Amino acid sequence: MTAIVLLGPPGAGKGTVAEVLVEKGYTHISTGELLREQIRLGTPLGLKAKNLLDLGKFVSDEIVVGMMQGVLKTASAGQKFLFDGFPRTLLQAEKLDELMESLEGKLSDVILLECPEELIVERLSGRRTCAKCGAVYHTTYHPASVDNICDVDGCELQLRPDDAVETIQRRLAIYAERTAPLVGFYQEQGLVYTVDAARSIEEVRNEVLERLGQKLP
Ligand code: AP5
């Protein structure tokens, strides 16, 4: 089993890059999406997580690591994982190393998407998502074919509660304090490849595909 990590601030485009890697056979694991699913299902974990997500605050390391242990328990030998939004703290990164070692897996790349703050605010405030299937759009950069309706399943698109401008600012501050130190952690392991994510969706996706040795679309 191998894995890559997509690292970068909220709104840098991790989920958008992940979409093309899924087409290349990667198993996409977004901890944000897993948590939102628990919220949709109304599970005890979802009820605990909802307020934190809405406010842009992190869920505890214990919960997230437990969730990832569950996911990786079922991994098969040749599976290629793509982690999006995990790890997000140094403790999570250390736990991921332990997990990979225990499963004889290998973390092969950490793709760091860099994006200036003003662009992030524009991207997140224009983002619209389908609450049913999770498809992601942008009012300007990636509009749905019919205004506000998901191309995949025809459901109405929504603004994520944590994409309110003041919550975006909080998420960015938490990223700087708790997640940015992971860049140094992974640089020491020689795993970081930095991508300028301020470019078009196609340019960013193509650079990541090339880096991972995948054919361009
Ligand atoms: P999560 O869902 O992981 O949110 P995030 O990291 O804040 O990232 P986003 O999904 O907001 O952005 P993205 O980088 O994927 O951008 P996207 O591709 O959508 O986590 C949510 C919450 O869950 C956290 O705040 C926390 O509470 C909790 N959580 C999750 N994991 C956790 C963990 N490990 N530990 C603790 N708590 C955890 O793109 C954004 C928009 O821009 C879209 O509209 C897209 O169409 C557009 N766009 C993308 N790329 C481009 C481009 N190149 N040009 C123009 N537009 C673009």
Summarize the structure.
With 217 residues, this protein is of the alpha/beta class. The protein has helices at residues 14-23, 31-41, 44-55, 61-73, 90-102, 117-125, 165-179, 181-188, 201-211; strands at 2-7, 27-30, 80-84, 106-114, 127-130, 136-138, 157-158, 192-196.
CATH class: Alpha Beta
| Total number of distinct structural domains | 1
Helix fraction?
40-55%
- Report, as a whole number of angstroms, the end-to-end distance: 25 Å
Heterogens: BIS(adenosine)-5'-pentaphosphate
Structural class: alpha/beta
Predict the CATH topology: Rossmann fold
CATH homologous superfamily - what is it? P-loop containing nucleotide triphosphate hydrolases
The main pleated sheet reads as: 5 strands, parallel
Report the sheet-strand fraction.
Answer: 15-25%
Please compute the radius of gyration using only Cα atoms.
17 Å
Overall residue-averaged pLDDT value: 96
Q: Could you say which overall geometry the principal axes of the C-alpha atoms support? A: globular
How many strand units? 8
Uncertain runs are none
Total count of helical runs of at least 4 residues = 9
Give the SSE order as H and E letters.
EHEHHHEHEHEEEHHEH
Describe the structure in your own words.
The chain is α/β, with parallel strands linked by helices. The chain has 9 helices and 8 strands. The protein has a single domain, classed as Rossmann fold. The protein is 47% helix and 18% strand. Strands 2-3-1-4-8 form a 5-stranded parallel beta sheet, with helices on both faces. It has a 3-stranded antiparallel beta sheet with strand order 6-5-7. Strand 5 and strand 6 (136-138) form a beta hairpin. Helix 1 crosses helix 9, helix 2 crosses helix 3 (44-55) and helix 6 (117-125) packs across helix 7. It is globular and about 45 Å long. The relative contact order is 0.20. The structure holds BIS(adenosine)-5'-pentaphosphate (AP5). BIS(adenosine)-5'-pentaphosphate binds at residues 8, 10-16, 30-32, 35, 52-53, 56-59, 64, 85-86, 88, 92, 123-124, 126-127, 136-138, 141-142, 162, 171, 197, 200-201, 204.
